[in-house]
Amino acid sequence: MKYVKGGLRDKRGHLMVWHSCEDCGKWRLEEVYKGEPRYVRCVECAGKLCGSKRRKERTYQEGYVVVKLNLDSPYYSMCHMKRKDFGYILEHRLVMAKHLERCLISDEHIHHINDVRYDNRLENLQLTSRGEHKTLHTGQVYKI
Q: How far is CA 22 from the centre of its chain?
């Protein structure tokens, strides 16, 4: 890390800022992505959410958090099957599936009530159909 005009930069040239964990308040250096810290939780707190200490968290460009699941996970069938995303699942879908204690089908959408894509607390998530979800975002009624 080195300090350059405009902030602290890592070896790759990414801007770094001091940021506190949403859960425990621990401060750490975090990479900036689209004007905000890339991860909102420290590694320890992120692992507690998933039940695994070795949980790896990353954010899609659209701002959604994705997590990697083990092959033996009961929710593995919900994972993305694209080559580069093999074994990854959107965290908000995993949180809702664990709450319902079943896998979600592809037509079930999860709506973030406060429109913050990385806020995956259960009280911020709402299970909807595709049409209901589009109506929530646009106000227009869709027939599907």
A: 14
Cα→Cα distances 119→79, 95, 114, 131, Å: 20, 11, 8, 22
Nearest to 26 by CA among 53, 46, 56, 12: 46
Counting DSSP H helices and E strands in the chain, the numbers are 3, 10
pLDDT in tens, 19-66: 888 888 888 888 888 888 888 887 777 766 554 444 455 666 577 888
The model carries a pTM of 0.56
Helix (H, G, I), strand (E, B) or coil at 96: helix
Question: Rounded distance, CA 13 to CA 120, Å?
Answer: 30
Every domain of the chain and the residues it spans: 1-49
According to DSSP, the β-strands at 2-4 and 27-33 are unpaired
Other beta carbons within 10 angstroms of residue 84's beta carbon come to 6
Specify the amino acid at residue 68. K
Report whether 85 contacts 112 (CB < 8 A). Answer: no
